[in-house]
DNA sequence: GAGTTTGAAACT
DNA sequence: CAGTTTCAAACTC
């Protein structure tokens, strides 16, 4: 079976991608006792950052709870009440093209969910746990499979899964880490760390960007696409409501730019939102497409129409409002969505806004009257909408469905229409001005060579410009990409159970008992973020989600949660597996939850083409060792000094002073749990100190050389510029000159 | 680059 | 759980 038994859910380590999750232990937030829907956790006290395993499932089959205060004003025929635990409100409204019906959010503090027409068959209740996981998944409209749109945000994760009308799933996964931007740069309040996710697709090249922003009010990325065909921006801002009752706002806006007519989406996006605002930059040429949330299909005419999903969890009464306004031709396929929330990939704008504010939402506050003509509408719940995330979903033409033989996953390839032709490569890099955001960097995926990893180097694929001040300033992300593809496996996500994060990417979980047939897949950020290797740093599945203390950490969690030093910019080494098919833990790629990409392996099955085998292998590994995919190096409370290997090493001949030793490799001391013989990897070991000094010296040497090269290069270039062009023309010797100089610096100085 | 060494992972 | 085998990385030459 490809499917992991439900039991795994409990097994899933919280830190699968995050070794640093351990650090979170410090403040055991008031964890909602039970994920039970009826329990109402106090949102205010639960910081977003906390990795609460709880997941909010929209319209789960389970019995709804807390319907009491739900207020549904949607005129849609199919409205579903979703129970939201912890008083969160969830409102989902979709308006057909014919008539957009405003969705009113219940003012009551209790959670309420409203489902608009666009979401047919939404009989299942929506449950929104206090934790901030939001899962939107849309199921294919084939009619057989229920459609679901799930936004999952676990502290640092955001998953967006959707299936296009054609049944093409779209999944966006954001790692937890994103939600935890570097606090250092942020407000400084460790607890209040808003996270922003940006996904941007532009032009022929869809770009997906994710940003995590510390400040609550921040701008989500905007992307400019030359062709403006697709624009996706997802922004999630988390702010833990502390005593001050800081608002927690999470907005997700998915906008799809219509080829010709769409326009309003842009306007809405650009409209400054206070405190946070989202800027979407789209080329004027092609306005963004209408937003369709729910199954609504936006007719070309409805370009202006936009559907928004606003989710705003309020402290005590957290509210979630999802409004989809899409004009859909009656004929539009995939109208029947069984899932609570349907997001039409094509031409839809989804706005999810999460705000934790004390002020209750007032009914009718949602202004999103689904009028096709109108630009994107934002629904302000519990206050003014502060953050917007705009995710332009690929229009059907832009979405390619990929079928993997034997794979249970639906893969969607988002292809931006290239002006010229195929765009396989993530061409234009995007720059992210704010490094701190990197965790959420936009990621790009290449269909072929896909290494799932988070780019360490900012700016390579997606250009993001974010104002440094994480605090309140809005962040703007601009992406100009030519060719980008996104491949994401999507599966209906009826419910997500806690600890999913432990599962390796691509893991498919069997439906929980009583949850119906719907299982869900774990999508590591890596799925979403595939970038040219050169540009990115591999993100260990678990590590990436951990709350990185520094920007660098965000990029990758090294194997063992090593700290930043290693993570700086080094892509994972390619593996050389020959016999394991890269489906055993021998393979580093596999062990880290990554697909092989640009590796030297033989007969590799660790790729999308062998998803079923891969899933089996994952399951097998988990069977052998439930924590197989957890980082081996845990982080001590005090920091690195306390980090140690979870199992300890068993070295016998290396003295634990070679990289054969996992402890040494992780740059940590052996501990009492190690079973090594002749260990020299302890604090006082002279051998170790010697090695360390040598290593340091070598490192310094390298740095010096690098600096020298850089300096010489700059000097030479400067010299050349000063000299007449004649010299430049004859620059054949330039390189040799440089090389000559570069060698000059004495390497042995140290 | 080929061959050896090493220890984790996998297997019995 | 212990012993053995397999495997791929680390290392040496």
Report on the structure:
There is one protein chain. This protein has 750 residues and is largely without helices or strands. Among the domains are: 49-445 and 465-487, no CATH class; 701-749. Helices cover 14% and strands 12% of the residues. The protein is built from twelve helices and 19 strands. The strands form five sheets. Strands 2, 3, 8, 9, 10, 11 and 12 form a seven-stranded mixed β-sheet that branches. Strands 4, 5, 6 and 7 form a four-stranded mixed β-sheet that branches. Strands 1-16-17 form a three-stranded mixed β-sheet. A hairpin with a 5-residue loop joins strand 6 (157-163) and strand 7 (169-174). The termini are far apart. It binds a DNA duplex (12 and 13 nucleotides) through loops.
């Amino acid at each position: 079976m490809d499917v992991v038994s439900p039991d795994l859910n409990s097994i899933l380590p919280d830190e699968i991608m995050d070794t640093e999750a351990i650090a979170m232990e410090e403040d055991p937030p008031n964890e909602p006792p039970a994920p039970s829907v009826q329990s109402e956790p106090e949102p205010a006290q639960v910081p977003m950052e906390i990795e609460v395993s709880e997941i909010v499932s929209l319209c789960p089959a389970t019995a709804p709870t807390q319907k009491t205060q739900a207020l549904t004003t949607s005129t849609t025929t199919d409205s579903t009440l979703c129970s939201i635990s912890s008083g969160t409100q969830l409102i989902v409204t979709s308006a057909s093209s014919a008539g957009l019906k405003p969705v009113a959010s219940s003012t009551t503090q209790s959670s309420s969910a409203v489902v608009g027409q666009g979401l047919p068959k939404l009989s299942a209740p929506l449950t929104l746990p206090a934790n901030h996981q939001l899962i939107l998944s849309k199921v294919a409209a084939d009619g057989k499979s229920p459609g679901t749109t799930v936004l999952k945000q676990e502290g640092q994760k955001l998953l967006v899964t959707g299936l296009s009308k054609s049944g093409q799933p779209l999944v966006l996964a954001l790692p937890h880490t994103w939600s935890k931007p570097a606090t250092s740069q942020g407000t400084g309040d460790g607890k209040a760390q808003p996270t922003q996710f940006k996904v941007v697709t532009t032009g022929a090249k869809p770009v997906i960007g994710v940003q995590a922003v510390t400040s609550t009010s921040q701008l989500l990325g905007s992307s400019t696409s030359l062709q403006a065909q697709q624009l996706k921006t997802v922004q999630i801002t988390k702010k833990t409501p502390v005593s001050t009752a800081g608002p927690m706002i999470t907005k997700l806006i998915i906008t799809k730019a219509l080829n010709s007519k769409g326009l309003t989406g842009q306007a809405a996006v650009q409209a400054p939102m206070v405190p946070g605002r989202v800027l979407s930059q789209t080329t004027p040429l092609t306005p963004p497409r209408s937003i369709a949330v729910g199954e609504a299909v936006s007719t070309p005419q409805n370009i202006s129409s936009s559907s928004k999903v606003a989710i705003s969890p309020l402290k005590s009464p957290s509210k979630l409002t999802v409004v989809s306004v899409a004009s859909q031709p009656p004929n539009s396929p995939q109208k029947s969505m069984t899932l609570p929330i349907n997001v039409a990939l094509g031409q839809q704008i989804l706005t999810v806004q999460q705000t934790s504010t004390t002020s209750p939402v007032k009914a009718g506050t949602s202004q999103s009257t689904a009028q096709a003509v109108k630009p994107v509408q934002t629904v302000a719940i519990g206050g003014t909408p502060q953050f917007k995330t705009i995710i332009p979903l690929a229009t059907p033409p832009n979405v390619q469905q990929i079928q993997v033989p034997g794979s249970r996953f639906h893969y969607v390839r988002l292809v931006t229409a290239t002006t010229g032709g195929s765009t396989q490569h993530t061409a234009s890099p995007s720059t992210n001005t704010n490094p701190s955001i990197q965790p959420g960097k936009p990621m790009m995926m290449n269909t072929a060579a896909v290494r799932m990893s988070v780019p360490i180097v900012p700016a390579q694929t997606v250009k993001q410009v974010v104002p440094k001040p994480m605090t309140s300033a809005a962040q703007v992300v601009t992406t100009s990409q030519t060719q980008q593809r996104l491949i994401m496996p999507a599966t209906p996500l009826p419910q997500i159970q806690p600890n999913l994060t432990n599962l390796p990417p691509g893991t498919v979980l069997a439906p929980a008992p009583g949850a119906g047939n719907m299982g869900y897949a774990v999508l590591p950020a890596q799925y979403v973020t595939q970038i040219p290797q050169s540009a990115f740093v591999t993100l260990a599945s678990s590590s990436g989600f951990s709350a990185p203390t520094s920007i660098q950490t965000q990029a990758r969690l090294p194997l063992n949660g090593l700290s930043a030093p290693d993570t700086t910019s080094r892509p994972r080494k390619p593996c050389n597996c020959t016999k394991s098919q890269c489906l055993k833990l021998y393979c580093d790629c596999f062990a880290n939850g990554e697909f092989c990409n640009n590796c030297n392996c033989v007969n590799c099955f660790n790729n999308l083409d062998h998803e079923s085998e891969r899933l089996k292998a994952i399951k097998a590994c988990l069977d052998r060792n439930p924590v197989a995919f957890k980082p081996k190096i845990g982080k001590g409370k005090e920091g690195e000094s306390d980090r140690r290997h979870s199992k300890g090493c068993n070295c016998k001949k290396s003295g634990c002073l070679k990289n054969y030793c996992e402890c040494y490799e992780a740059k940590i001391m052996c501990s009492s749990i190690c079973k090594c013989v002749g260990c020299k990897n302890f604090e006082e070991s002279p051998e170790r100190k010697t090695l360390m000094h040598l290593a340091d010296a070598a490192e310094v040497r390298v740095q010096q050389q690098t600096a020298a090269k850089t300096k010489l290069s700059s000097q030479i270039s400067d010299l050349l510029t000063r000299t007449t062009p004649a010299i430049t023309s004859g620059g054949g010797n330039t390189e040799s000159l440089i090389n000559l100089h570069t060698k000059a610096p004495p390497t042995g100085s140290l």
